[in-house]
Amino acid sequence: MTSTPKTILVADDAALVRLFCRSILESAGFRVEEALNGFEALESLLTKAVDLLIVDINMPQMDGLSFLRSLRQKELPIAAIPALVVSTESSMSDFAAARAAGANYYLVKPIDREQLVEFARMLCGVPA
Amino acid sequence: MTVQSAANGDIKLIGACPGEDAEPLLQHLLAAPGATVDWRDCHGVHTAVIQVLIAARPTLLGPPADARLRNWVEPVIARTPR
Amino acid sequence: MNEFLQQFLIESRELADAASSGLLALEQSPHDAERLAEVFRALHTLKGGAGVVEFFAMERAVHAAEEVLTEARMGKHPLTTERVGHCLTCLDQVLAWLDTIERSEALPDTAASEADQIVRRFEGDRALSAPDSSSSTERAPAAWVTGLLKGHHAVAPRALTAVRFVPSADCLHQGADPVAGMMSLPDLLALDFSAHLPWGPLESLDPFSCNLILMALCAAPVADLQKHLRGQSGECEVVAIPAAIHDFESSLPPQVTAVIKAQQALLGEECSQGFAGRVASAGLVAANALRSCGRLELSQRVSRAAEQSLLALSARPLEEALAQLLTEKPSLAIAAPDELAQASDLAARTFRVDAEQVDALVRLAGELTVVNNAFGHVVKLAQLGDPSLPDVLKERHEILQRLVGQLQRSVLRMRVRPLRAVLQRFPRVVREMSATLDKSVKLVIEGEETEADKAIVEMLFEPLVHLVRNAIDHGIESEKDRIAAGKAPIGTLRIEARRRADQVLIEVDDDGAGIDPARIREAAVARRLRTDEQLLAMTETETFDLIFAPGFSTVTQVTQVSGRGVGMDAVRSAVERIGGQVSITSAVGRGTRVTLSLPFSVMMTHLMTVEAGSQMFGLPLEAIIETTRVPQAAISKVGGASVVVLRNRTLPLIDLAGVLGVQAVREDGDGATVVVAAANGEWGAFQVDRIVERLDLMVKPLEGLLVGTPGIVGTTLLGDGRVLLVLDVAEMLQ
Description:
The complex is a heterotrimer of chains A (128), B (82) and C (734).
Chain A: E1 7-11, H1 15-27, E2 31-35, H2 38-47, E3 52-56, H3 64-73, E4 83-87, H4 92-101, E5 105-108, H5 113-124
Parallel strand pairs in A: 1-2, 1-3, 3-4, 4-5
Helix pairs in contact in A: 3-4
Chain B: E1 3-5, E2 11-13, E3 15-17, H1 22-31, E4 36-38, E5 42-45, H2 47-56, E6 59-61, H3 67-79
Parallel strand pairs in B: 2-4, 3-5, 4-6
Antiparallel strand pairs in B: 1-2
Helix pairs in contact in B: 1-2
Chain C: H1 3-28, H2 33-52, H3 56-73, H4 81-104, H5 111-125, H6 143-151, E1 161-167, H7 178-183, E2 188-195, E3 212-218, H8 222-229, E4 234-240, H9 243-248, H10 254-268, H11 275-292, H12 296-312, H13 316-326, H14 355-384, H15 389-414, E5 416-418, H16 420-423, H17 426-437, E6 441-446, E7 451-453, H18 454-475, H19 479-484, E8 491-500, E9 503-510, H20 517-526, H21 532-536, H22 540-545, H23 568-577, E10 581-587, E11 591-599, E12 604-612, E13 615-620, E14 624-630, E15 635-638, E16 641-646, E17 649-655, H24 656-659, E18 672-679, E19 682-688, E20 690-698, E21 712-717, E22 723-727, H25 729-733
Parallel strand pairs in C: 6-8, 13-22, 17-19
Antiparallel strand pairs in C: 1-3, 1-4, 2-3, 5-7, 8-9, 9-11, 10-11, 12-13, 12-20, 14-18, 15-16, 16-17, 18-19, 21-22
Helix pairs in contact in C: 1-2, 1-4, 2-3, 3-4, 3-5, 4-5, 10-11, 10-13, 11-12, 12-13, 14-15, 17-18, 18-23
């Protein structure tokens, strides 16, 4: 059984959110990459081996769901990347919209530290 | 002696504890019911000693040095209710 | 992966395939001594190989199959259909293990228990020799076993045996240490002990009177444990955990259940695009979640279901697998016919090549080197302005063209394989399907030595499975109906492959009920695919062709095998994607024939086609980052060149129409449709009139007048006869 650390790409245009996720996930043993927008996210996905994408969909500049949707439509292996969507909204229609865009799971802000680590582990296949 | 009394009243299990240690351990625990058993330097316990630990269920100061004790014995004792 | 392991994989796959076909032949003639010896040798060598690389579980499983052959050869126990079936299942498992070994260089954790399940199948068939207290595989397991499994559910899937040992009360006086004995059991997974009788007050405790019940879960088989526990005084029970019990333990942690439910919801969401991405990610996430809580076998099951879904272009297989995970008692279904359609073993990354072909390439390389060296002289002529330069160049160029043509042909030739590789899987497929569908079918395969490009061989299995499935399910009638119609009771299904000029023809025909054109017309009208007038004007061939239209199906009953539809449109798209065609002819009451005509050689490039200035261009897909529209405001001029700002990046904007000297067909100042591409670290945006579609085409290198056009790597012909220019992205971005 290999024990190479899993890499998580955090796509959020707010530096504070990226820092928050980075500190929690790194202490849990993950490697963290950051992206400020869809373009950078795509570049990271294409050039590095990313195991999980965490994308915030409440951002003025990057429409996280559009990005995810276009990602899922690509004919490249990265189209299958597990995606965890984070949002302030928690209505059923928001969940449905996220699913329609191809999100594998949805966490509502404020993000619980333990939940973030727990779900990151499950989506990456890391035993507890 | 592989069962020792420390200055603060803790009972220490040191090294491999053979069956002969079971009685002394039991006596210690009867004499000092609230005592803690420190088995951090313990490398093995005979079944008779395990019986005493399960029946008396003292507070254990661990983890034990030996991997087998950690993997197999410690979880069972931890699950046993007082 | 080291060469040794690669060699092991290649040889083992060959041996397993040889053994499988031998076994199928033996099923028809079980006393064929030569064939028995052949299969025995294949199994024996396969077993030996596994031993050498120390894949002991595989060695054990194959040994059980080898024993069957030994007994048959010695006349001790002839081959029955059941025994052949067990051997075939064993070989299927071996192939699955080989796939895992290829990916991870080791057998999966579940191999030991899977091997034991295989061995158990064989044993069930033999008279049980030694009676032992552990052969209670038929009865429901004792409560203590289920309790033990529930209490240690993380390791439960790997547990083969459960032990319950109550040492005799005075054993400690005799110097025994039962706990130590339990801790040294082979392949120990979990240990538990509890009090046999209540302890009583501490003062009256006798530490040397043993009062413990010791229980354990192990991954070692019963026999090994019995050996270990021999000589211990006390009451000892060693129980084999029935394989079935694992499937009833669906106690998944709640968070994992939540994740799985979320994937079900994702799959259920109606969405026209991105199907592959969504299904693949849902499967991956579910498999990962199961892996994170230690349920490795379930994880693999989900991964396989996801693969099937991607192959079959339907979310159903994965949805069903996920649903099974969440129910208390999932059905213990034997392999559904869909699982036969696993093309993974066909797309091997290493394959054997004729030594002669390699020699021919070596000679060719030599000739090319000579021509290359001669160019030094040509350069000198150019520097001196020698007037003979054009003639010398022309001559050299002709030689080079000839050699390059030879190179292309030789390389394409190396990819050619006999179709046997795919056709030889069908006796097994037909056997399973005719059993499931309760039809009697005889399969005739002709022309398996016909050769075709590796890409064809690899893609052919799935469409053929669809066609065979249809023929058996809807074409060939039941024995009763056939006799009533005056036909032979056993239907004949024929698969024939032959070469005709630069095409490979594959025919699948059956002598079944045929297709009634009237029913097709009815269905076409019912599904609003054609109007009555259109149908009246169609020829019979055109009518049959409707079968391939998406959304068409005359199946009124959904059967287990045919499932969600006929799959003919999938067959057509798979065939057309590789540059071939499929047609169908039929006669009511007599039978149906489907003909696939495929190109002999294929070298495909994945392209995105765009239009600029009425010219069609192709961009290699791997160079494309995204396509989008940019507002006019984002475009500006820097020096003489245009740039576009996209997502905080400034990219050179290359007007495809302009660069290649053709007239753009668009309004200026209205924003632009761009394709963002990257090659060799350089980024750029190509401005086009419109994005057309994604295609897989065979690209021909430049010849004739187009030679030397900068930025173009080759051409290809589109379906409508137009020429597509394939761009050299790296060159254009420099």
